[in-house]
Amino acid sequence: MTVRMTEDDLNWRVEQACREGWPAAIEAVTDGWLLRRSGGRIRRTNSANPLRIQRGAPDKVIDAAEAFYVGYGQTPLFRVPDIAGELEATLDKRGYQAEGGTIHLYSGIDDMPATETLPFHPRPARIGWRPVFAWKLMTKPTAASFAR
After folding, report:
1. Domain residue spans in the chain?
2. Among 3.30.450, 2.60.300, 3.40.50, 3.40.630, what is the CATH number of 7-104+141-147?
3. Is the pTM above the cut of 0.85?
4. How far are the Cα atoms of 5, 127, 134 from residue 81, in angstroms, in the given order?
């Protein structure tokens, strides 16, 4: 029996794949949020990211994240995907503003034809398990980042 993955399941798998594919130099878990720091300007590796576990009260999570990032001389940044939006109202009340967005790109490889001509590439593209130059993608905005 084949069990179909829900959209939330897929979004959480994408979150995990992105975390693992772009690891941060320092990570700490607090109340169901992963606090990531690497320095530099990359938001994904320098922000608080939700985990697919029970997450704590927004004020407690924000306080812990602020202490973590201020301890490194860094402005706190929170990634708030649609699947874990419980911090958004509290961030708004504390003066945080949306400053960027994230789009996850994914496609159901098993549902795609083995070979397909893409409009921006004159040669046939092979669809398989390894990344190639061009992908046929389904896109949907899935997260916003907040900073103050």
Report:
1. 7-104+141-147
2. 3.40.630
3. no
4. 18, 28, 26
